[in-house]
Write a structure and sequence with these properties.
36% helix; 140 residues; 21% strand; single chain; alpha/beta; 6-stranded parallel β-sheet
Length: 140
């Protein structure tokens, strides 16, 4: 059985709803799934999981949330080489640049992106939630 971590930060609940859909998708494929916020997860935990989904909305000038998520993710980067991961998040402005930059960063870290990232503008609609569920399945 695959062990999957879903680590997310959410300011308005949009990315939290996406994270819950990721969890459900992974569970439907039979995975043992744990849901964390950035304050509950750190780089020492990466080795406990076969794959990790990271979720963060766009903040500021199309960047990751700075106070909790960015420090946690930065600390994880040195352990992402060959790790199966997937990315998701919501945004309220821009065109998704934060996700493209984040994907590039993960590729440079040597992470294995198992599927296309999922982004949505504002609250996730039914299609975005289905995509998040599929993202969870792809991690298994």
């Amino acid at each position: 059985m695959s062990k999957i971590a879903v680590v997310y930060w959410s300011g308005t609940g949009n990315t939290e709803n996406m994270a819950k859909a990721v969890v459900e998708g992974a569970k439907e494929k039979g995975a043992d799934v744990a849901l964390f916020t950035p304050t509950e997860f750190d780089n020492s935990m990466l080795e406990q999981f076969d794959a990790v989904a990271f979720g963060c909305p766009s903040s500021g000038a199309e960047e990751l949330e700075e106070s909790e998520f960015e420090p946690m993710f930065s600390a994880c980067e040195n352990k992402l080489k060959d790790k199966k991961i997937a990315l998701f998040g919501s945004y309220g402005w821009g065109d998704g640049e934060w996700m493209r930059n984040w994907e590039e960063r993960c590729k440079n870290d040597g992470a294995v992106l198992v599927c296309n990232s999922v982004i949505c503008n504002e609250a996730p609609d039914e299609n975005a939630l289905v995509e998040c569920s599929s993202l969870g399945e792809a991690l298994v």
